[in-house]
Amino acid sequence: MIMSRINFLTSLNFTILLLIFLALVLIVGTVVPQNLTEFEYLSRYSADSYKILKCLGIFDIYHSWWLVSLLFLLCVNLIVCSIKNFPRLKRSLSQVNEKLTDFQLKNLPFKVTLRKNCSEEEAKKKVAAVLKKFFHSQKEITDQAGVYFFCQKYRYSRWGFFITHLSIVIILIGGMISSLWGIKGWVKIREGETVNQILLPDHTKYRLDFDIKCDAFAITYYPDGTPRDYKTTLTIFEKGVKQLTKVIEVNHPLKYRGFSFYQESFGEAPDPTGEIILRVRKRGREEGEKVVSLRPGESFSLFDPGWVVKVNRFFTDFVRDEKGEVFNRSFELRNPALELLIFKEGKLKYQTWVFQRFPDFHGSKGEYQFLIQDIKKKVYTGLQVNRDPGVNVVWLGCILIILGIFLTFFFFHYQLWVWIKPKKDGLALIIAGNAHKNRSQFKKIWEEIRIAIDQTF
Amino acid sequence: MLSNKILSVVTFVYLFSTLLYFVYLVARKEVIGKLATGITTAGLLGQIISFSLRWKESYTFGYGHIPLSNQFESMVFFAMMIILIYLLWERKFKVKTMGAFVTPIASVLLALTTITRSFANEIQPLVPALQSNWLTYHVITCFLGYAAFAVSFGVSVMYLIKVSSNWRELGILPDAAILDEINYKAIAIGFPMLTLGIITGAVWANYAWGSYWSWDPKETWSLITWFFYAAFLHARYTRGWGGKKTAFLSIIGFLAVIFTYFGVNLLLSGLHSYA
């Protein structure tokens, strides 16, 4: 009972069943949208069916434990089937009867007997010459019953199925290595900026062992104005020492120490050290406005002598937490704010926050009114950063699967025997052939050889 | 554009040869069969000229790329590959009646592109992701595979007509055994090509998107099709399935191919938005 179950798991029926089942599972994955948020799912499904489907892993079906188990079973099935077939294949390839016997002849699908009148020696020469045209090598044996020739072609194609099955296991192992030990992250680097951290999908940061600098980003266009290419010039530094510079573009990533950097996106981002254009006027007066351009940390003088304003802090996304502490939530320009310190003769008079979105909110304090006119942005390049230790294993599997499949489908193993049998009234030339598969195609080759041998006499 | 004008003519040439193959099927006149083959060959030559011209025209627009970059161009190429494989196999297997079942697929594809005008036929610049030599390798291998599956589909329909009780005596169709063999041979070409298509796609995706497999619907469906034909081959080769069973499987397989090609773009969204 247990043995029969194990036999089933290692059988070809099970392979077919697995393949069909895998196909069905994948169909489900393309029909049910994957990896949406809970909110999005609840707008599509009822709360109960959402819970059940989530439990079953339907919403992340390609990473569900049971898809992994199915693939594992496929691997086991492939390996066991290959092991089971290995001795038989090896035997049938190595234990070839090079001497044709009457018994063997009976079972061969292609055979013919020609009667010729010539010496054995002459026949031997002629047959050998013909076979040389069709085969790279030939085996010749002489005994008291006559002369035997044996030739074969594409013997190695029999290994095709074996290589194919093994390569699938290799590809799956490669995929497993990729998903277990691979790293996939993103980084946005402004022109001129250097970074050494990337953002992982779970929003944590990953520190690289080296620094990467974006020297420049550029877009080229076609004559009709559609983008032709996005190019980033990247330089790698290790401990401050420049290692290499490369221009990357879509389809041409940079590879360095196992990491690959792909051009993925681009955009504009505020520059925390960049220029800010500020308008200042005396309260209640429209004229006499002063426009200044400065960077965070810099100061400028006001109209009245002795008054100085310092830009203390610049937040792109100003928020206040529960305790009333202010902080910068993100690097996006959601709520840009400047902290200004106003000094009179070197003494701090007051401190104020100025908001770009809410010009009348805070800056209304004091004698002066400050307005943020512009925050200079910088172009950034968006890179995808990967480290994939499984990828070369996958490529190895891919090369092997191509080799295996091409051996299986485009070549077939065939064998040919010629037996020169001396008879009382001349010679009997027994020609026999066999093809492991593709007999209809072999028939043509067989006919050709048969006719060639016949006509050489 | 001259290439598009030629293509419109080719569409009608294919429709006409489809018609001739049907006449041949009924009338069984050798002359008509030869005419059908001749006209289909002329159509294929016309299509190759149109394809080359379009390639050349793209340079005058300042882009310069092989015309395999969008739905229109891929459909035209699909039709071209079907006719190419069909004509080669007509010579090889000497079964002209097959034409009545295979050429309609190519005719319909071209008719859809040139008559309905719902597929943009302008030469467009290549978006950055498509600028890669892998585009050529990927598209050619995929569509050779698809075309071989299209032939297996046509032959399987023939087979089912041949063996169905009402038509069993139909002498005009070739031997069921030959049809069964052609069906297998077609899949034995299509499957390696589909494998190459998936692998070239993976290599390319690894350059362009930084990941050889993303479970994009197009990728997933190509794998579904691959699993299906793998099951087919195992059933046929080691279980000895044949005849009606494999004919049905071939038809289902080709429906999966069509879904991979059209359905995914029409119904599912993903990275593979070009074609």
- Work out the oligomeric state of the chains in this entry: heterodimer
Distance between the termini of chain B: 22 Å
- Principal-axes shape call of chain A: elongated
The percent range for helix content of chain A is 25-40%
Tell me what the structure shows:
The complex is a heterodimer of chains A (457) and B (275). With 457 residues, chain A is α+β, with helices and mostly antiparallel strands. Chain A has four domains: 2-83, no CATH class; 96-154 and 412-456, Double Stranded RNA Binding Domain (2-Layer Sandwich); 179-272 and 381-402, Tick-borne Encephalitis virus Glycoprotein, domain 1 (Sandwich); 276-377, no CATH class. Chain A is built from ten helices and 22 strands. In chain A, strand 7 (227-238) and strand 8 (241-249) form a beta hairpin. The longest helix of chain A has 30 residues, at 65-94. Chain B has 275 residues and is mainly α. Chain B folds into two domains: 1-126; 133-275. Chain B is 75% helix and 0% strand. Chain B has helices at 2-27, 30-60, 71-93, 99-114, 133-163, 176-208, 217-237, 244-267. The two termini of chain B are 22 Å apart. At the A-B interface, helix 2, strand 7, strand 10 and helix 9 of A face helix 6 and helix 7 of B.
Feature tags:
heterodimer; A: 457 residues; alpha+beta; Double Stranded RNA Binding Domain; Tick-borne Encephalitis virus Glycoprotein, domain 1; B: 275 residues; mainly alpha; 2 domains; 8 helices; globular
